[in-house]
Amino acid sequence: MAIHNRFSIELVTRDTKWFIVLAAAALLLQVLVLPHAGVTTHLGLALGHLFLISIGVTFVWPVSRRRFAAYLAGYVALFGLSWGYPQKELLMMLFALLYAGTFHSPLLFGIFLIFHVSFVLFPLYALAEFTLGVLLYTAFWAIVRARQGPLVSISFLWGAVLVLFLLLPIAHLCSLATVQDIASTWSGNPDVRRAIGRSVATSTVATLVIAVFGIPFAYAMARAEFAGKNLLLALLDVPILIPQPVIALALLQVLGEKSTLGHWLEQAWGLRFAGELPGIITAQVVVSSPFLVRSAIAGFQEVDPRLEKVARTLGARPVSAFRLVALPLARRGLLTGLILAWARSISEFGSVLILAEHPETAPIMVYHLFIRHGLQEQTIPAVVLLVLVCLWIFAGLHLMRHFWSGGILGGPRLGRTDTD
Amino acid sequence: MAARIRIEGLSRAWGRFSLQQIHLDIGAGEYFVLLGPIGSGKTLLLEMLAGLHTPQQGRILLNGTDITGLEPEHRHFGLVYQHSMLFPHLDVQDNIEFGLRFQDLPGTEKERRVRFLAQALGLEGLLGRRPATLSGGERQKVALARALAIQPAVLLLDEPLSPLDSLSKEELREQLLRLHRELGTTTLDVTHDQWTARMQADRVGVLQDGKLLQAGPVGEVFERPGSRFVAEFLGVENILDGRSVREGRGVRVRLASGPEIFIEAAHVGAVSVCIRPERIRVLAAPPENGLPEPSCPASNVLPGVIRELSDRGPMVRVTVEAGATSWRALLARDEFRRLDRTVGGEVHLALLPGEIHVIPK
Predict the structure, then answer these.
(1) How many Å apart are CA B96 and CA B110, to the nearest integer?
(2) CB–CB of A286/A251 below 8 Å?
(3) What pLDDT shows up at residue A10?
(4) Which of A116, B27, B149, B222 is 20 to 30 Å from B97 by CA-CA measure?
(5) How far does the CA of residue B72 sit from the closest CA of chain A (Å)?
């Protein structure tokens, strides 16, 4: 088996010279074969070539030059085939499988197989199947290659069923709407735009509110030991347990116009909850807080209290020691908590529906669209747009967390490193 | 600059454990080593001095001023933990400079201090590195530099050498002592390692179960331990119970195991007899013309058989069975070669009256 513990990027950079030569040759060949194709076609095809060449350079080149020459010949043949029989996908895929198998590249082989299965055999959910399939397969391949034992590999395969089940519907949903649909929904439907904006804004405010109160609370819970601490921690999870409409009813009882507190809040501060933005934010705060608090407690517990003690002896006041030592070292847990709280806030539906159906947040807008139109053309692009906005912000937050919480530092656990 | 510390009756309980009535004086510029087994309360005492715990009783005086209630950030005591406790999110330079950000110093002075400490501890090449990439020895050096950068009144060390391998331990020990000579910072070092005390200390104290058993100059505490525990902890391997009666310039002790030996000491009654293993003379044959030293009476020479040998690097530990007692002696390698005996060989032990210490029971 020509399996190499080297990553393609590493090899490609090392053999950059050859890589460039091969890519240039492929492009030249392609321009000669398809002289009338447009620039975009050439660009798209060139990307495909680069992928195949990089795989060739990675897996076949270091083994032997003869094998690489064979790979190159097969590549040219495949190239010709795709040019001659552009419609005959099945035939082409079989050749591709054969080709990948010949060169003992299990990764390439598997990817071709998944492509084959998803686009030729089950074309209904093709794009979603292929994307998730390649993702899971690549992970599986890495696990097998790292020789972590059959139990780990089989457990992964077993669990992959769950992951597929979780992600396939959403991935499929996303593949249903075209980019044009989404763009026209965004530009042509101000209600959708406003609802999504409202959701993003309210959940951001809710997250900030949770952070302001939750982070100090989590710090205290991580440092203090007292009787009943475990009970208090367990009670924190109650908002997760209770059905969301019940939470909304409970909030209405306390904050509604007829309640004493609600009346006072309206008189003194002009705050109204039922059917207003503060109501939405309150509901979001209640259901999301446990996520931040839990995660932040874990984050602070990772920071050795002696680090703060040392900071104190060096001249830091307690607040400075917290700001300069505990806070930055717990940032991984804190950011995870903030992201989870934000995600939970934006997805909250049940309690918001009762507390403040209007103004519409995005989940409620989706619900209304479905009630009015069912699974029709108006619904899908709006839903996909919502999913995409959420995913983009979610991904952005995770990227930020990765930067701040020491992806750059490398170490997986930071608080307690000094153990020899 | 060097400060003196006085601890008066310091007490505090933590659940079952408590520090009880600690009295201690540490002179200006002194290197004081507090010895104690694990769990004796050394670290808690150190943290209390740093202001991280409030005592329930007693006072801490710094140059005569009561600082018992002073917050840690106002004490300027440098603290180095056993596991260096560097700030993992800061690089070496920022770690060393951490305490300086709370002091109103010109930039050139900060730079000067960092440069001086980095040079003294050999950290020049590491200033941009993160703690996670440093070796154990390097981390301890950075922790030491960080504590010294604030020019502390007192340096508190919690066994900074103990997690290190022997090579880096010796290197850091030398640098630590050199810095102590140059800066003259009053230092309190707590450890369970008697060698740290012997090599580094001006004075030592012994702590057990939250109580300070004995304190004094190194030679005195090691040679004249005040209790059986102190003697055992400081490496006196031959401790025997007996009863003494006055005789001439000293006492004659009848050991519980049989032999009677003469000791230059004053205690009469039930005693424990302590002889450090390196103080026992091991002879191949009974001394023919007289004794190894004029002061050694014949009753202090005991015949015995070697039961065990153990290699201790430059030394050899010999276990000799004499009568009902096992004696442990440490011989230099040369001496052992001249002795020319192995396990089962017959030897004579000479116990010099002046090198035996007696603890009243």
Answers:
(1) 10
(2) yes
(3) 45
(4) B27
(5) 5
| DSSP code for B314 | T
Distance of CA B145 to the CA centre of its chain: 23
pLDDT digits (tens, 9 = 90+) for A52-63: 666 666 666 666
Radius of gyration for chain A, computed over Cα atoms and rounded to the nearest angstrom: 28
Searching chain A, which residue's CA lies closest to the CA of residue B145? A314
Residue B133 DSSP class: G
Three-state secondary structure of B277-308: HHHCEEECCCCCCCCCCCCCCHHHEEEEEEEE
Q: Nearest 10 degrees: CA dihedral of A97, A100, A102, A104? A: -130
Count residue pairs from A and B with Cβ separation < 8 A.
87
| Token pair of B240 as six digits | 């025997």
All residues of chain B having their beta carbon less than 8 Å from the beta carbon of residue A304 are 85
The HSE-up count of residue A130 (CA atoms within 13 Å, CB side) is 17
Given an 8 Å threshold on Cβ–Cβ distance, is B83 in contact with A418? yes
The residue length of chain B stands at 361
Does A407 score more than 50 pLDDT?
no
CB A248 within 8 A of CB A350: yes
Nearest alpha carbon to residue B184 among B156, B153, B217: B153
Per-residue pLDDT tens digits for A351-370 = 999 988 888 899 999 899 88
End-to-end CA distance of chain B: 44
How far is B174 from A3, CA to CA, in rounded Å? 52
Contact yes or no for A307 and B73 at CB 8 A: no
Q: And the tokens for A138?
A: 């690549």
The reply to whether residue B131 touches residue A414, judged by beta carbons under 8 angstroms, is no
Compute the C-alpha angle B6/B10/B12, nearest 5°.
155
Q: Write down the number of H helices and E strands in chain A.
A: 22, 0
Interatomic CA distance for residues A194 and A382, integer angstroms: 12
- pTM greater than the 0.80 cutoff: no
Cα separation, B175 vs B183, in Å, equals: 12
Is the link from the previous residue into B131 a cis peptide, with omega within 30 of 0?
Answer: no
Tell me if A317 and B73 make a contact (CB, 8 A cut-off): yes
B326: β partners: B321
Measure the CA–CA gap between B303 and B321, rounded to whole angstroms. Answer: 9
CA distance B68 to chain A (A): 14
Give the Cα separation of B131 and B96 in Å (integer): 11
Q: Of the candidates B242, B263, B234, which has an alpha carbon nearest to the alpha carbon of residue B357?
A: B263
Distance CA A380, CA A60 (A): 45
A420·B146 Cβ contact <8 A? no
pLDDT, greater one: A359 or A65: A359
Q: Which residues of B15-132 form beta strands (DSSP E)? A: 17-26, 31-35, 57-62, 65-66, 77-80
From CA B215, how far away is CA B205, in angstroms rounded?
A: 4
CA distance B128 to chain A (A): 13
| Residue A90 confidence (pLDDT) above 60 | no
Q: Which residues contact B323 (CB under 8 A, 6 or more apart)?
A: B257, B258, B259, B302, B304
Q: Which of B71, B79, B88 lies at the smallest CB-CB distance from A417?
A: B88
Residue A52 in contact with partner chain B when CB distance is under 8 A: no
On the 0-12 / 13-18 / 19+ scale of CB atoms within 10 A, A385 is: buried
Beta strands in chain B, from DSSP E residues, in sequence order: 5-14, 17-26, 31-35, 57-62, 65-66, 77-80, 154-158, 186-191, 203-208, 211-217, 238-247, 250-255, 260-263, 269-275, 281-283, 301-312, 315-322, 325-332, 346-350, 357-360
The Cα–Cα gap between B326 and A275 comes to 90
Instruction: Give phi and psi for B227, each to the nearest 5.
Output: -150, 165
Backbone angles phi, psi at B89, to 5 degrees: -90, 0
Both tokens assigned to A106:
């299990």
